[in-house]
Sequence to fold (428 residues):
Amino acid sequence: MRILLFAGLAEAVGQSQVDLVQGASTQTAGDLEVRIREGYPDLAKSPFRIAVNRVYAEANDPVVDGDEVALIPPVSGG
Amino acid sequence: MRILLFAGLAEAVGQSQVDLVQGASTQTAGDLEVRIREGYPDLAKSPFRIAVNRVYAEANDPVVDGDEVALIPPVSGG
Amino acid sequence: MIDIQTEPIDPEEVLSSVVNPLGGAEVLFLGRVRSETDGREVVHLDYEAYGDMAQSELEDLVQQVRGANDVLGIAVSHRIGRLKVGEIAVAVAVSAEHRPEAFRACRWMIDKVKERVPIWKKECFEDGSKWVVEHP
Amino acid sequence: MIDIQTEPIDPEEVLSSVVNPLGGAEVLFLGRVRSETDGREVVHLDYEAYGDMAQSELEDLVQQVRGANDVLGIAVSHRIGRLKVGEIAVAVAVSAEHRPEAFRACRWMIDKVKERVPIWKKECFEDGSKWVVEHP
Fold:
């Protein structure tokens, strides 16, 4: 599963997307967050929300293969 | 003493200014209002404020010869 | 810019006059002649001002806004004479570092203009006209 | 008009897009790149967006405003890419019958844009840069 990164998160990791193997432990957005924080030390403590298919997701929203997943750091438009 | 009229007040009286003889009974803006309402039946019940020298006046503000006096009906700019 | 004018108001000009390098926020208010009022079709509006006093009131209000140290720039322009439907009657622009002050000052200014400044409008319909007295 | 664009924003164009014959009030908000932040001189700002989601969030917010039946028109335009000091980063315009609704909807919209829409800015100074995280 490909995960899009933006702004400070992309800079922290040094790339604008990362890949995560999906499985039994990544059924929800909350699961994904745990896996990402474990798998990418640069993101362990960064504040972000997860968006699934371009919509902010709650922790128990399901994530399935093929979903567009993104990490959204605190926004600062305007 | 010349008194400027505007908008609906000017239309009611049919002219854009009226004259009032100043005297002992017209020492203040409040006095003037009484005299105007008595002297001009068309203005007897019209809502207006009095401005003296282009500033809204209170009832006990003095009025002297040479002051620019105007009757200000409810404003509706914008 | 503090104007009472018979020529059409150019919103871009009013806005430009307040732009400040330290300003992160600008708010522009435009009051426009509506095509109908209380369901009646408006043909045009006639605006009349007690010009000298209106100018002086506007200057006083602008000074009050400028006295609040969180506003970087303010401009107000009011049109008088005959206005067609869709034309701009009044424009207020404010520049501030951040948006809360810009919104607040712009709203305060237009509220005060409508409350205090000696300008009057007469709505002209197909079958008559009347001086407006409410403050909508 | 709901736009995320790299070209300069034309405030007049954003404003024109909301004008409505029934509208007596328009409010335009402009967010502009300030020359300094916390006393440091800004050289430029780099804006980045998660474009598809930002567009979708803006459309959703605009729908919410339009759902309130007292708003006649709303437009929002956000610029991305590199912006110089003094350039417009965002514009929101609202048309309504009367001014309270126009002010309210314009303020609500810009607040929501800054709270929800996935756009980020990086302040670039002479001696470094940083992503902005506060909501001023």
